Amino acid sequence: MPADTFHDGYPFLKRDERLSFDEIETVARAAASVGVSKLRLTGGEPLLRRHLSTLVSRLATIDGIDDLALTTNGMLLAAHAGQLRDAGLNRVTVSLDSLDEQVFREMSGKRGDVARVLAGIDAAQAAGFDNVKINTVVRRGLNDDGILDLVHYFRHRGPVVRFIEFMDVGNRNGWESGDVVPSSMLLKRINKRWPLVAVAPAYRGEVARRYRFVDGGGEIGFISSVSQPFCGDCHRARLSADGQLYTCLFATAGTDLRRGLRAGDDIAAVAERLRSIWSSRHDNYSEQRGPVREHVLKKVEMFRIGG
């Protein structure tokens, strides 16, 4: 979200355009009733939402939800980590594309600073989050020469770095196939420096391929949506702040749930809607990336639906 476009006066959603906590909880309870067991709060930046810990405490009590996570840019994490942990949040993922300040700012829309993000990660660990993950999007010629620095920094510290292939999400990031660094190339580079061994998936549909360091230095992961698509095992749906449900990260349109919620849809009605939407989905953009791109699809922006 570059600052020259998304400036201080940019017209974001008005309060009444965003789902309320009551509405979010209704959708979450409906999702749990049809088999969803994991919830993740993303953004934009979720820590900008006032009283977020209140929402966390409400979601944490839902029967059937056994994993509640948050993805954040880390800038506000130090101030909120303890409160979120006390409210029932299970896991934290922090987006951090480089330890180099100049590269970091270029990749984060000229916002933020590395030291503050690192302080947020430390605060999360101090608050009791013992499974912090670091998401690093790798773009050729921009931050790919700093991956070993990231690995070195977090080895033996606890957080798991996950390298994500640069994807053509949305319409604003100037994606070109030549900018993608295949995960296999990164794996070879890291393995040459610190030997790795593969870790079996924890569940079907796990998006990251995991490896642990032979010397006990921890784990790393690779998310390879471009070179090794996993559409067939995808089990994620995304609910935007304005109540649109998207069944794919690369979707061109969502399904409006807000209108039904405000017309009186209860948990059962929303659950039936979710069941219908999911059973009829046919998303497999990553498997068709070449042919689909020829039509220049206008995809939903990632800042509206998270990762």
Q: How would you describe this structure to a colleague?
A:
With 307 residues, this protein is α/β, with parallel strands linked by helices. Strands 1-2-3-4-5-8-7-6 form an eight-stranded mixed beta sheet, covered by helices on one side. The longest helix is centred in the first third of the chain and has 13 residues. The two termini are 14 Å apart. 35% of the residues are buried. The mean pLDDT is 92.
* Poorly predicted runs of 5 or more residues: none
- Helix share, percent: 25-40%
Pattern of helices and strands: HEHEHEHHEHEHEEEEEEHHHH
In total, the number of strands is 11
First and last CA, distance? 14 Å
Task: Summarize model confidence as the mean pLDDT.
Answer: 92
Q: Which class best fits the helix and strand makeup?
A: alpha/beta
Number of helices: 11
User: Strands of the biggest beta sheet: in what spatial order?
Assistant: 1-2-3-4-5-8-7-6
Shape: globular
Task: Give a quick precis of the structure.
The chain is of the alpha/beta class and 307 residues long. Helix content is 32%, strand content 16%. It starts with 20 loop residues before the first helix and ends with a helix.
